[in-house]
């Protein structure tokens, strides 16, 4: 548990320094601890050292772990098939990976059925990587309008996954592009998109410098994963 406490402290120092460098307050940046492949015992240790929000990328894996970790809240950060929407709405406080009108419609229907309000982000494939999910930048505005209108959903902002690069600074244009896209859509639609979920273990500091309000950090907290 000592290593976990040390890792978390170190990540928090790096978040604070990056916020400071860019003239932002540390409290503007939420830490989502990515716990995919990490077992419930270790996630409970993470709760014990002060982490509260966890990111999972698979509904099936999360279904078993969430009941075993009291006192936490959960974000789905991986792609979601429509046939798992009902269960995702039951398990997660936020779905960060909404990337189609069909999925937004289904999540809305399920949220209304379950009499709850679900926080959502629109995932954008800023770098247009063919293997990645996410709405194309030019589709994002219409998806934002749609999601903002649906009952049961509370649209909070945008999310992206930067390409894997050798130097984190190479990811900067992607983070900046997401912020600029957000600014443009807010201006066009008057819909508030306050949250920008961007940045992972290798690049979260650059993401914060470019305006991230949520960073999704796995390996820098829990160590390397044996599988993903
Ligand atoms: C795995 C994952 C992360 C965390 O990646 P690390 O490199 O372990 O920090 C963040 N976001 C998404 C969508 C992921 O799948």
Describe the structure.
- The chain is an alpha/beta fold and about 230 residues long.
- The chain has one domain (about 1-220): TIM Barrel.
- It contains 9 helices and 8 strands.
- The protein has an 8-stranded parallel sheet.
- Strand 3, helix 4 (about 85-90) and strand 4 (about 95-100) form a beta-alpha-beta unit.
- Helix 4 crosses helix 5 (about 100-115).
- The longest helix is centred in the N-terminal third of the chain and has 20 residues, at about 1-20.
- The protein is globular.
- Bound molecules: pyridoxal-5'-phosphate.
- Pyridoxal-5'-phosphate binds near residues 34, 57, 200, 202 and 218.
Q: How would you summarize the topology of this molecule?
A:
Elements: H1 2-21, E1 30-34, H2 40-48, E2 53-56, H3 59-65, E3 73-76, H4 85-91, E4 94-98, H5 101-113, E5 118-123, H6 137-149, E6 153-159, H7 172-189, E7 195-197, H8 204-209, E8 214-217, H9 219-222
Parallel strand pairs: 1-2, 1-8, 2-3, 3-4, 4-5, 5-6, 6-7
This protein binds pyridoxal-5'-phosphate (PLP).
């Amino acid at each position: 548990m000592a290593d976990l406490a040390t890792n978390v402290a170190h990540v928090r120092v790096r978040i604070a320094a990056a916020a400071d460098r860019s003239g932002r307050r540390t409290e503007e940046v939420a830490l989502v601890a990515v716990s995919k492949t990490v077992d419930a015992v270790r996630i409970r240790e993470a709760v014990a050292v002060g982490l509260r929000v966890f990111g999972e990328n698979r509904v099936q894996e999360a279904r078993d772990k969430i009941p075993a970790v009291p006192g936490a809240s959960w974000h789905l950060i991986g792609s979601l098939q429509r046939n798992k929407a009902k269960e995702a709405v039951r398990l997660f406080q936020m779905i960060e990976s909404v990337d189609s009108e069909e999925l937004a419609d289904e999540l809305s229907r399920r949220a209304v059925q379950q009499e709850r309000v679900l926080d959502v982000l629109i995932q954008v494939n800023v770098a247009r990587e063919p293997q990645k999910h996410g709405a194309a930048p030019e589709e994002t505005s219409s998806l934002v309008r749609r999601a903002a209108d649906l009952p049961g959903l509370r649209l909070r902002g945008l999310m992206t996954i930067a390409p894997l690069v050798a130097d984190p600074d190479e990811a900067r244009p992607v983070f900046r592009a997401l912020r600029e896209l957000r600014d443009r859509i807010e201006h066009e639609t008057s819909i508030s998109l306050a949250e920008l979920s961007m940045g992972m273990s290798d690049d979260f500091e650059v993401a914060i410098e470019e305006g991230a309000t949520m960073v999704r950090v796995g390996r820098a907290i829990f160590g390397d994963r044996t599988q993903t």
